[in-house]
C-alpha cells in the first residue's frame, strides 16, 4: 500500500487560518493524512514550569539561564498524559519565575517507554536525541520546521506516522524513505509489509543507524555515492541483494543478521570498525565473498556455512573464528597477505588445494583465540607452498598434507568461481595448486543500479513570467551584469566565475535586485550563485536583494562594497570567507527566517547552530555578548563597526573560541573587552586600530593572547584588569602610556616581562594580594615615588621599601567598597566593586541590558547545566568551565539591527513585513528602508563547512576536534588542487577542494620542487583558500597542502611575474684603521655593516 507521509503543511496552515474547525471534527488517521487534532501548527504555545522545573503533565525541562534556552530533559516515564488523551505538544517556550526560555532540544530518551499516542514538536526545536520517542504506543509524530539533528533511533520502537513540515530543508519523505538532505543520508525506511525492491535516491552518502532495521525488502539498490554503512544500518533486514562495492566505511554490525544476503562484494575500504566479521555479523546465506582491498578480514566470520568462494585481491591478514565452511571450494589469498588463520580450513571437505604465498609470516589458530586442539583438521586440504616459506614449514611440522611447488608452473584455466542471478565471479585458476589470479566480478542486469528509477524530490513550481529576466544578446541584465549559464543543470551564475571576469559598475540609485531566473534565447535558467568579486569595493551599491534561488555567494562578492541594506534568501548555504567583511556602511542585514543555514540574532549573523559568528553590521553599535556556543569568529566579522564592547565566553578544557586575524580591525568605538579561558587568536594584533579601547578584563590563566597580541605598540588603555594569576610571563614589548588603573586582586606572581613598556607614572595606588608568592625586582620601574603599594604581604612590603614606594598595611583595614563603572550605555554596563582607599577590587560584572543577564567571573568548577534541575536559577549567571552548548534565547523575536546605542528588545514584537521594491516575485525583497524580520527562526544548520557550508554541520561532536589532530576513525584524504593564481603579482592565491571531515589545512612552500618544504600557514576547514603574501616578482614557488595530519596533496608551482629589479653593483666601503685613531677594527667593521 502506498503510504504517503509528507504533509503539505504550508497549504494546510493557510486553509485552516481561514476555516474554523469544530472541536468535534475528527478526521480519520489514514496513511499519509493528518487528523484535525494532529494537524501540525507553528506551536507558539508557552507552558509554565513549577518549582521542580516540570509542566502540568510532569515533563521535566533543563534550563540554561545564560542563553535563556530550554531542553526537554531525559526520562519522563512518570508523566501522566491521560488528561490530554495521550497527546503531548512540546511548547515553543516555557516560563519560570517570570523568564521565558525557548525550547531548542529534546534530550535522548526523553519519552522512551512513555505511554504516548501523539507528539507535536514545535518549530523552535533543532535537536532530537537518541531514543527520544522510542515507545511502542506512539502513533503520530509531527516534526517542525527547524529539526535537523535526528536519527532512526529517535523513534526506534515506535510504529507511527511521521509528519514533517514541508519547508524543513533537512528532512524529506520520498516514498517510504525519510532522507536527511543536510547529511545526504537515509534516516529510516518506514514501509510496511514485504517489498520486492527499493531504489535509494541518487546522491545519498550514507545509510544511517538502524535505517533498514527489520525491513522486509528483497533487493536494495544503492547509488555509487553511498560510501558509509553506519551501525546496525541493515540489521535483521531480509534482503537477498545489496551492492556494497563502492562502500568505503563499514561500522559495527551494519549487516547484522542479514540472513538472506547472498553476496558480499567490497571495494576499497578506507575505514573498518574492528573487523569485517563484526560488520557482517551472521549472514548465514552468503555464498560469495569478494574483497578488493581488505584492511583486515578479521574474526567472527562465523556462520558462513554456505560460502562457496572467498577471494581477497589485496589484504594483509586473513584470520577467522571457528566455523564450518563445508561448501567452500575456492579460497584465493592475496599475494601480500602476512597473517593466516589455519582454523578457517578445518572443515572444508570441498577445498582440495590451497595456495599460500611466501608473504605469509604468521600462522595461527583463530587469530590467537582458539581453545581447542586445532592441529587435527577434520578434513585434509593440501597446503601448496614453496619449501622455504613459513607456510610450508608449518604444514610439515604439524603433519598437514603438503605439496612443494618450487618447480611448479601454474597451468591457468579460465574459471567461474561463483555465479547466481545477481553476479558472476571469474578468473584464472590453477587446479594443481589452488593459485588464482586476474579475478574479477560482474553484476548482472538484475543487480545494476536502475538510475532511471531513482526517486527524486517533487519538482519546484515553475516560475511566474514576472520572475524571469530576459538577457540581452551579450547575456547581460538591465544592470549590465553578465550571466554564465550551465545548459546541463539549467542554472546560472550572476557575474563572474573567477578573478577580474567582471565587476559591477553601479546604477544611479544603487539599488540592485538580482533576478531569481534569467532567460537566454528560449531557455530559462535558475540563478544560484553571486559570482566571485562581483560587487567587491563597489561604493555605488546601496541595497542588494539575493533571492531564494541562490545557494552560494562567491568569494569576496560583496567585500568592501557600499551596501547599506542586504537581504539574503532562504536557500543560501555557502558564503565564502571575507564575502561579508569590510562593508563599512552596512546597516540592515536580513536573513530569510526560513534559511536553514544562517540566522540573525541580536543583530549579528551566525550559522544556525550558533557555532560561527559571521558578521556584525558595521553601523550597529552597542555591545556583543558572544553566545557560549560560538567556536569561531570569522575574519572581518566586526571590522570597521561601531561596536562598543565585547564579552568572550569561557570555554571548557577541550573547547576553544577561535578568533580570526582581522575580526576587530578598525573598531574605533570599541571601549571594553572581556576575555576568558580557551581564547585562541590567529593574528598578530587583535585590537588593531581600536583607538577607543580603554578597558581590558583578562581572565586567562595561560596566555595564547599576550598583551602584545591584543594591543598596538601605543595603546590608549586606561584600565587593565587581570583576573587570574600570570602563570607565564610574556616576553614581547608594548607601550600603554595612559594607564590609570591596574587591578589584579588575585594575582600572586608578578613578572616584569609582562608589564614591560607599560607607563605606570599615572598609577597612584596598587593593591597586591596577601598571597603574593613571586615578584620581579624590576617591575613597575616607570612608577613615581607617589605610588602606594597596598597589601598584607611581607614580600610586597619589602618590595615597596626597596623601591622607595609608600606602603599601606591592610592587616587592620576594612574595605569601603563602592561601584566603579568602566563603561555604560543602553546595551551594557561593565563595573566592579572598588575600594578607593586601597585600590582593592572584586565583583567584576558585565550586564547585558538587552537580556538582563549579568556575566561575572567564570568559575573553574564544571557544571552539567547552567541551571541545574534542583536549584533555583539566579539572575547572575556564572558560566562553568564547560559551558552548556545551547542556542539563543529569543526564539520568538529576532531583534532588529538597531542604530548605535539602541538596545534590542527582548519582548516579542509583531512580525515585520518585507515588501518587494519591484514587480512581485516569489522571493521576498528588502527595500532601502527594510528591517530584519522580528521573528527569530532557529534553523537547521549545515554539517560541514562553517562559513563555507555545503551540508549541515552537527551541533555536537564526540571527539576532540583540535586543529591538526586526526579524529578517531577518520581517514583523511590528500587535498585536490582547484586553482592557483594571482591578482596583482604581490600575493599568490591557493585554492583546493574540500576534504570531508577535515578540521585544519596546513600549507607548505619551497623554492624548489624537491627542496625542503616549510609550513607557511594553516586555515580552518571553512576555508579552502590561502593567500601567500610573502612572494617576490620573478621567482617560482612550489606548494603542497596537508589535510589535518594526513597525506599531502600533489605539488603545485607558480611563477610570479613582474618587473625584474635592475642589477646594482655595490662596492663595499673600505676604511683603514689609521683613519680612525682610537677605534678598534671590530668597531669599524660593525659600523660598516
Structure report:
- The protein is mostly beta strands.
- The protein has a domain at 1-169: Alpha-Beta Horseshoe (Leucine-rich repeat, LRR (right-handed beta-alpha superhelix)).
- The strands form 17 sheets. Strands 11-12-13-15-17-19-21 form a 7-stranded mixed β-sheet, with no helix packed on it. Strands 34, 35, 36, 38, 39, 41 and 43 form a 7-stranded mixed β-sheet that branches. Strands 1, 2, 3, 5, 6 and 8 form a 6-stranded mixed β-sheet that branches.
- The N and C termini lie far apart (91 Å).
Summarize the structure.
4% of the residues lie in helices and 28% in strands. It has seven helices and 73 strands.
Shape: globular
* Alpha-carbon Rg, integer: 35 Å
Percent of sequence in beta strands: 25-35%
Largest sheet: 7 strands, mixed
Question: Helix tally?
Answer: 7
CATH architecture of the domain at 1-169: Alpha-Beta Horseshoe
CATH topology type of the domain at 1-169: Leucine-rich repeat, LRR (right-handed beta-alpha superhelix)
Q: Would you state the CATH class of the domain at 1-169?
A: Alpha Beta
Question: Would you tell me the overall average pLDDT?
Answer: 75
Keywords:
mainly beta; 7 helices; Leucine-rich repeat, LRR (right-handed beta-alpha superhelix); 7-stranded mixed β-sheet; 28% strand; 1089 residues
Please describe the topology of this protein.
Layout: H1 9-18, E1 46-48, E2 61-64, E3 69-72, E4 87-89, E5 93-96, E6 99-106, E7 118-120, E8 127-128, E9 140-143, E10 161-164, E11 171-174, E12 177-180, E13 185-189, E14 195-199, E15 206-207, E16 217-221, E17 228-229, E18 241-242, E19 249-250, E20 263-268, E21 271-272, H2 276-280, E22 288-293, E23 309-312, E24 317-318, E25 330-332, E26 339-341, E27 353-355, E28 362-364, E29 382-385, H3 390-397, E30 402-404, E31 413-419, E32 423-430, E33 435-443, E34 468-470, E35 483-486, E36 491-494, E37 511-513, E38 517-520, E39 523-530, E40 543-546, E41 552-553, E42 565-568, E43 574-575, E44 588-591, E45 598-601, E46 604-607, E47 612-615, E48 623-625, E49 632-633, E50 645-647, E51 657-659, E52 672-675, E53 679-681, E54 695-698, H4 707-710, E55 719-722, E56 741-743, E57 749-750, H5 752-755, E58 765-767, E59 774-775, E60 788-791, H6 794-803, E61 806-809, E62 817-824, E63 828-835, E64 841-848, E65 853-856, E66 876-877, E67 977-981, E68 988-992, E69 1000-1006, E70 1014-1020, E71 1025-1028, E72 1036-1043, E73 1052-1055, H7 1081-1088
Parallel strand pairs: 1-5, 3-6, 4-7, 6-8, 7-9, 9-10, 13-15, 14-16, 15-17, 16-18, 17-19, 19-21, 20-22, 22-23, 23-25, 24-26, 26-28, 27-29, 29-30, 34-38, 36-39, 37-40, 39-41, 40-42, 41-43, 42-44, 47-49, 48-50, 49-51, 50-52, 51-53, 52-54, 54-55, 55-56, 57-59, 58-60, 60-61, 65-66
Antiparallel strand pairs: 2-3, 5-6, 11-12, 12-13, 31-32, 32-33, 35-36, 38-39, 45-46, 46-47, 62-63, 63-64, 64-65, 67-68, 68-71, 69-70, 69-72, 72-73
